[in-house]
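Exercise 7b. Backbone tokens:
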């Protein structure tokens, strides 16, 4: 079940909506308008609401590869 991001053309409110196959058409939670624009959104590679760049692995200990441990042949 995907989560879509919308922007309401009538009032400018931006919101997310979990969409099931049987879901009714989306409407703005503020003004109830159905004049919505689906926003282009990227998927989340990290989980949790506090995920940040600090959660990414550090450089490889042996060669310094920026993608972290296991990214290169030197282990």
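Sequence design result:
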């Amino acid at each position: 079940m995907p989560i879509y991001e919308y922007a309401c053309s009538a009032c400018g409110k931006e919101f997310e909506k979990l969409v099931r196959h049987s879901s009714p058409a989306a409407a703005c939670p503020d003004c109830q308008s159905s004049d919505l624009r689906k926003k282009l959104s990227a998927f989340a590679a990290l989980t949790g609401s506090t995920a940040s760049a600090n959660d990414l692995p550090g450089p490889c200990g042996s060669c310094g590869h920026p993608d972290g441990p296991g990214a290169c042949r030197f282990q």
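Instructor comment: The chain has a mean pLDDT of 75. The first strand starts at residue 3 and ends at 8.
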